[in-house]
């Protein structure tokens, strides 16, 4: 029977370093409402701005279909040009590339290239 006593008798030296004391910040009776930061009232083009804002915030990861498409900006709009048949597809802002895949499946030029590669 060996009972391990959990008495840690480590000698604790007194801290000589004075800790910074935050006085008053923890009081519950803090009836001082924090003054809200000055709100910038300069909202212009709120509707048009959302798209670019979204793109900046969340950059869509490039999917594998982009290996067969080339990004092109036509009239300020982002487009995708098929590397095989040079046809231009719309680039969805949501990052959806399902229509790219659909095009690749139906792209005759691509099929030709694949057949040539197999020979
Ligand atoms: Zn194509």
UniProtKB/TrEMBL annotation:
Question: GO molecular function, one example?
Answer: sequence-specific double-stranded DNA binding
Q: Does the keyword Lyase apply?
A: no
For this protein, the record's PROSITE patterns field holds: ZF_BED
The keyword Zinc belongs to this UniProt entry's keyword annotation: yes
What are the UniProt keywords, alphabetically? Metal-binding, Zinc, Zinc-finger
Show the ranges annotated as biased composition (Polar residues). 24-42
Domain BED-type, chain residue ranges per copy: 60-119
* Residues covered by region (Disordered): 1-56
InterPro entries (UniProt xref):
Cuticle_assoc_protein, Znf_BED, Znf_C2H2_sf
* Entry's Gene Ontology cellular component terms: nucleus
Q: Which GO terms describe its biological process?
A: regulation of transcription by RNA polymerase II
Spell out the protein name for this chain. Answer: BED-type domain-containing protein
Whose protein is this, by species?
Answer: Turnera subulata
